[in-house]
């Protein structure tokens, strides 16, 4: 009997209950709320936002709704054709939307650096950075920099991107007086990682690689990154918040390496 109560408490504590039932939480919104509902009445004009992986899935919906609310949205994507299609689909729905597309492959350190150079050349402010792009459960693969692909894409690429854009975000927050926001898309999967959490000595070790735990490891890194950066920015007095979120369970192309999850899509 006690274990049932413990199990129930765990489901409520971790938010799974609210996630599955769609019940509204203290914010007044729940997992069934749409991005349009959550942002209703918000005027985002004057804000510049970068959304990584903004050409599809959750990133595209985020880009679409932020553009709808008036923000200048930069879709950062590795597939420029898909990003242009995404931009056009947003413009079809909202002719006044301000959307630009820039090339970013998070799996390449060189590409992250080039993206930041191109963005800085536009001489725009930067209010919001949404570290959304991700891959899940891929077979073992090393990036061009020799880093396991899930860790490289989900964490290292976003970590470097954030570091390189931080001065711009601090400057924007200082001169405008508007709080900057950094959001890392993480996952409940962060709890299902290797025994030691992040296996720093084995990140690129093919023999001990397990696709699901490697995903969990990269998502744990997203959370630790957000927590530590948030602490440092607070200590420094920078007017920028950093949060990580689990977005819920949404059937997107993210599931492409999971036979079980893909079968739910078809
Ligand atoms: N969907 C869910 O249920 C769920 C649950 C928990 C967490 N999340 C998190 O939410 C985020 C978005 O997921 P999603 O469901 O929207 O997935 P998705 O539909 O597969 O979208 C992911 C996006 O990331 C891009 N991307 C992948 N590798 C990249 C790279 N190396 N450089 C630049 N962009 C890259 C993809 O571009 P390509 O099309 O070129 O691959 C795609 O546009 C991820 O971080 C994921 O871990 C999702």
* Count of helical regions: 9
Category by helix and strand content? alpha/beta
Q: Strand fraction band?
A: 5-15%
Evaluate the radius of gyration: 19 Å
The total of beta strands comes to 6
Provide the spatial order of strands within the biggest beta sheet: 3-2-1-4-5-6
Protein name: Short-chain dehydrogenase TIC 32, chloroplastic
Pfam family, one: adh_short
Family: Belongs to the short-chain dehydrogenases/reductases (SDR) family.
Protein architecture, described:
This protein is an alpha/beta fold. It contains nine helices and six strands. Strands 3-2-1-4-5-6 form a six-stranded parallel beta sheet, sandwiched between helices. The radius of gyration is 19 Å and the shape is globular. The relative contact order is 0.11. The model has no long low-confidence stretch (mean pLDDT 93). NADP nicotinamide-adenine-dinucleotide phosphate (NAP) binds next to helix 4. InterPro entries: NAD(P)-bd_dom_sf, SDR_fam, TIC32. Belongs to the short-chain dehydrogenases/reductases (SDR) family. This is Short-chain dehydrogenase TIC 32, chloroplastic.
């Amino acid at each position: 009997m006690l274990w049932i109560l413990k199990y129930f408490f765990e489901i409520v504590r971790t938010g799974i209950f609210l996630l599955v039932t769609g019940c509204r939480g203290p914010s007044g919104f729940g997992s069934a709320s749409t991005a349009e509902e959550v942002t209703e009445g918000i005027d985002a004009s004057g804000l510049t936002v970068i959304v990584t992986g903004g050409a599809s899935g959750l990133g595209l919906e985020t880009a679409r709704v932020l553009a709808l609310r008036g923000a200048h949205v930069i879709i950062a994507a590795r597939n420029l054709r898909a990003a242009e299609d995404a931009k056009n689909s947003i413009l079809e729905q909202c002719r006044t939307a301000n959307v630009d597309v820039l090339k970013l492959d998070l799996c390449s350190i060189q590409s992250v650096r080039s993206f930041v150079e191109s963005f800085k050349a536009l001489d725009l402010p930067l209010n919001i950075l949404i570290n959304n792009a991700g891959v899940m459960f891929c077979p073992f693969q090393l990036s061009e920099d020799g880093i396991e692909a899930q860790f490289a894409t989900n964490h290292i690429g976003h970590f470097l991107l954030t570091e390189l854009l931080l001065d711009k975000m601090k400057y924007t927050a200082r001169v405008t007086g508007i709080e900057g926001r950094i959001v890392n898309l993480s996952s409940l999967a962060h709890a299902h990682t290797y025994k030691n959490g992040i296996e720093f000595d084995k990140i690129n070790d093919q023999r001990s690689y397990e696709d699901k735990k490697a995903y969990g490891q990269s998502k744990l890194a997203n959370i630790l990154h957000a927590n530590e950066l948030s602490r440092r920015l607070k200590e420094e007095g920078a007017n920028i918040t950093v949060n990580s979120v689990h977005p819920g369970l949404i059937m997107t192309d993210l599931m492409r390496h999971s036979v079980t999850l893909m079968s739910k899509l078809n």
